[in-house]
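Sample intake sheet
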Amino acid sequence: MKQAVLAYDLGASGGKAFAGCIENGRLKSEEVLRFPNLPVRINGQLYWNILSLYENVKAGIQAIYHTHGYDVISIGIDSWAVDFGLLDKKGELVRNPYHYRNAIFAEGFSTLFEVLTRQEIYMKTGIQCMPINTSVQLHALVKERRVEFDQLRDVLMIPDLLRYFLTGEKQTEFTNATTTQLINVTTKTWDEEILSSIGVPRQIFQPVIPPGTHVGTLQAEVAKELNVPAFSVTTVAEHDTASAVVAVPTKEEDFAYISSGTWSLLGTEIKVPIVNDESMAINFTNEGGYKDTYRFIKNIMGLWIIQQCKAFWEKDRNSIAYDELNQWVEQASIRNVWIDPDAPVFLQPDDMPEKIKQYCRDTEQTVPNTHGDILFVVLESLALKYAYYLNKMERLTGKHYDKLHMVGGGIQNHLLCQFTANAIRRPVVTGPQEASAFGNIIVQLITNGKIENLREGRRMLSESITLQEYVPNKNEEWEATYHQFLERLHL
C-alpha cells in the first residue's frame, strides 16, 4: 500500500479530507472525502454539529484505507478558530459547541471590557478584540449563567475535541489556542488573570503543545470499528489560517499574504510579536504560527458577504454557479460606491443584499439595485480594504512587500484577485487553493521525517503546483479610487 498522511481541513461551511504524500520529489494531495458542515439552530441558538463532523472524520479514515488504498502514517486536523466544546467530569460532551455567530455573544463583547479594559487584554495577549473571540464567548456564558463551569473538567478547541474522540487524549494546540485571546503573549500559557476576571477556572484548560507533536494513537475501539490499524494522531498548525500560512509558496523570509475564504486574513510571518498602542488601535493580531513564528494578521470580512448574497438569491431560484456571479459583476455599471466590509451589520446572516443597500442609503451613496452592482460594490470594497491594511502593516513592521500572495478558496474569484492587484498597485500571486490542507500535510510530513523543514516544504510546494500572477492595471484610476474610498469611509 502507498503511504500517506491524512489531513482534515474543516471550514465554516464544509470539510475535506486529503491524502498527502511525496511522489518523484513533488508534493501530492488527493481528496478522499468532502462533506458539509452546517450549523444547527435550536430554540434560537446556533450550534455546530460536532457529532456529524466526527462521523465524517471516521468516514474519511475508511475512505483513505478501503477506497483509495493508502497506508496512513498519521492524521492531523485543522479547523476554524475560537469555538470550543465542553466536557463534564466524566469526560462526556456537555452539548454541541456554540457557533461563533450565535447572537448571545454580541452583548458579551461590550460587557467584557467592564471586567478588563481592551488595552489590558490586548497588551497581555496581542490578540485583536472581536465579538467572536473565545474570551467573549466564555464571558457571555458566565454572565448569562448558561454553563456551570465548576461542574466541568475540560474546554477543548474544535480540533482538540475531535482528537480526543479519536485518541482519548486531551491537549490544546498552540496556534489555535492563541486565537482564544486567553494565551499570554509573553509566557505562551493560559493567562490566569484574564481567566479569573471572566470567572472561568484555570484547571479546565489543557496544557498547550506545539504543532508537529505526536499526541497519541487511534483508540482500539475506533480502529476496530473502522477496520484499520491504530495509527498516529499528531497536532498540525490547527488553526486553518496557520496551516494556510505554512503553505505560502515563497522562498522569501519577509512576505505578505492573504488567506482568502469566508474571512480574509491579511498578514505576514514574524518572529517576535508586535504589541503596542498603534497595533492595538488598528486591531492587528499576533496569532501563533508554526515553529516559533507568529502570524501578524488583520482579520477582514471576506467572501462571507458574497456567500450570503448568493444564499439569499438562491431562495428564489435553483443553485447559482460562481461563474454566473462573475458574469453579473462584469456587467455592473455602478462606480464609486463602497461599503466597509467590516461594519458590524455584515457579521450576521439573513438578507445580505438589503443590508448592503441600507448601508449605501445610510451613507448617502447611490444604492446598487442589480445583483451585479451589489457584487461589484462588495468586491471593490474588499480589495480597497486590503490595500488600506497592507499599507498599515508595512508601517507597523517597517518592511516593504514587493508582492502579495493570495491562498485559499477565494483565489477562484479572479475578479477579486485582479481588483486586489489594482488596489495595492503591485503583483498578486495566487495559489494554492487548498492552502490549509497543504499546510496540514507539510507539517505532518515534517513531523514524520519525510521533509526536512518548513523552508524545504515551501520550496517543494512551489515546484508542485501552478501559480498565477495578476499585475495591476497601468492606468491611474485606482490611485484616485483608493483615496476616495478612504475619504468615504473616514479612514
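Comment: The mean pLDDT is 95. The chain has 18 helices and 19 strands.
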